[in-house]
Amino acid sequence: MKFLLIFLSIVLIEKGCNQSKINQENISVEYTASSRGIYKQIIVDKKTISTLQKRGGIPTTKVCNETYWDNLIKVIKSINIDSISSLQAPSKAFQYDGAAIANLKITHNGKTHETPPFDHGNPPKKIAELVKEILSISENIE
Looking at the record's lineage, which domain of life comes first (predicted)? Predict the structure, then answer.
């Protein structure tokens, strides 16, 4: 009976932790916000943080320190990456130039998961913490 209980516990724990098994070597996150007057692109992977402030400009690339990366991975693990393509934007101001249009891409093991467009400064709730973390990292390295 104890064996059965231990076996079931292990199986249930293993199934519940699938999303947390993110291969940190093969993941990158890209956040882009643009409008007529602004452009911001931030790409973060385990080794580098790259920011671009102008279309056609030269990106600023810095080393991604372990603390930034660990915080980012912690937030990513709390998100179902496969479902971000179906998120709904909480507002649509980007459709009439009321806000910059933003987009989030997560590339994991060669597969890209991309959100539908949303307002810069007002992401869907499920990715709000991740967007906040990405913007914070980019501001701290500049």
Answer: Bacteria
Question: Would you say residue 92 lies in a domain?
Answer: yes
**Cα–Cα distance, 102 to 9 (Å, whole number):** 42
Q: Which segments of 48-96 are extended strands (E)?
A: 48-52, 60-63
* Alpha-carbon span 89 to 102, nearest angstrom: 10
With tokens 């973390």, the residue in question is: 133
Residues 123, 66: Cα–Cα separation, whole Å: 26
The three-point CA angle 135-92-106 to 5° equals 40
Residues pairing with 41 in the sheet: 32, 52
Number of independent structural domains in the chain: 1
* Placement of tokens 């452009």 in the chain: 39
The mean of the pLDDT values for the chain is 85
Alpha helices, DSSP H only, in the chain? 2-16, 66-77, 125-141
Q: Could you tell me the two tokens for 141?
A: 């390295």
Rounded to two decimals, the pTM is 0.81
Strand partners, 134: none
The pLDDT-based confidence of 62 (bands split at 50, 70, 90) is very high
Contacts of 136 (CB under 8 A, 6+ apart): none
